[in-house]
Amino acid sequence: MFVMMQKFLGVFFLMLFLSNFAPDAFSQEDCGSKLVEAQKLYRQGIIEEIPGMLKPCIESGFTRLQRNEAYKILILAYLFDGDQMNAESTMVEFLKKNPEYEVMPNDPVEFVSLFESFRTLSVFSFGLRFGTNFTNPRIIEQFSALNTSHTDSKNITGAGYHVGVSINQYVAKRIFLNLGINYVHSSYKFLEESVINPGSPDPATISTSLKEFINLYEVPVSLGYEIEYKGLNFYLKTGLGFNKVSGVSAIPESGAVGAEITMTPYRKNILYTAQFGAGLKYKIPRGYLIFDLKYQYGLNNIVMSDLRYTNDELIWRYNYVDDDFSLNAFSISAGYNFSFYQPKKR
Question: Cα–Cα distance between 124 and 8 in angstroms, integer?
């Protein structure tokens, strides 16, 4: 009895296995033979039977390579029959399943001609960015708590970081519009040396150092042009940056390091920059890896000039008065762009 039960269960599970997997295998084998038969019919110019033969297998039954070959034969059959409407609608289906298809050397001329009549570039791409930046103040007008004619000022570039997202939209072949939003943290330093009683036998020197940190949200808008070379896409871009300052702080470093001072009330809320950049896009499936270089030139003064002499702690304790300055920066970014496609007749 136990042996018979084992045999029964063995047969049951074998039938269950065949019912789940065998039909697909037979279907795939059957569709493969139909593809070969469709190729023969096309070469013989007998095209009436091809759509009915291939369409059920395109929906289910082909491997990816077989499906692509079936689409090509189906498109060619419609073209041969003068059925432009069905040829174009089938090409749209083909491009939706293969949005990054590249023409092969053995593709028929008729297929290539129809393929090239469609827009195959991505409609837009969505990207993620991160990187580092190096910010340096550009002095517009110098001020000092002491005599400016006997004061030597110097600025030191500071490092920071940024993260953000961007959207790219092609407006013409090789020309794209980029819009982004970034969170930026930057730093920079001011150094001053003022000589007291320079004409006396024993002049004194007062040194002032202030390191400043700024956090802002940047919205860069740029127009770019792509150049393709040996499978790589290089690009140049130019545009404007609109920045909303979210917080500014400073640490005096004159002698002993002082406590952090809030500088937000003494800085403007909105900053503007001119931007120039270049980069490299490396194609990967469904998108690009991005390496980007950008220089930003500050257009407006960051200092609230009417509050320049109201920060008593900086003036009386550290002998520091704000210069009028804007922020220049150089940034290096890396990221990924995910491409979205919508095939359409040109």
Answer: 59
What is the dihedral angle through the alpha carbons of 73, 75, 81, 83, rounded to the nearest 10 degrees?
160
Place of tokens 């609230």: 304
- How confident is residue 27, by pLDDT bands cut at 50, 70 and 90? low
- Model pTM greater than 0.90? no
98: three-class secondary structure by DSSP: coil
Give the number of other Cβ atoms within 10 Å of residue 54's Cβ: 25
Mean pLDDT of 91-107: 89
List helix spans (H) across the chain: 2-43, 50-59, 64-80, 84-97, 109-115, 312, 318
The answer to whether 322 touches 303, Cβ cutoff 8 Å, is yes
CB atoms within 10 A of CB 202: 6
The domains of the chain are located at 2-118, 124-345
- Do residues 51 and 89 lie in contact, with contact meaning Cβ atoms separated by under 8 Å? no
CATH architecture of the region 124-345: Beta Barrel (2.40)
From the CB of residue 286, how many other CB atoms can be counted at a distance below 10 Å? 15
Task: Using the structure block, give the residue that is written with the tokens 């090409």.
Answer: 91
Are the CB atoms for 270 and 245 separated by under 8 Å? yes
How far apart, in whole angstroms, are the C-alpha atoms of residue 76 and residue 87? 7
What are the C-alpha distances in Å from 211 to residues 158, 214, 260, 308, 341? 9, 10, 10, 17, 47
Looking at the predicted structure, is the pLDDT value of residue 10 above 60?
no
Tell me how far apart the alpha carbons of residues 47 and 51 are, in angstroms, rounded to a whole number: 8
- What burial class does residue 148 get, using C-beta atoms within 10 Å of its C-beta: 0-12 exposed, 13-18 middle, 19+ buried? middle
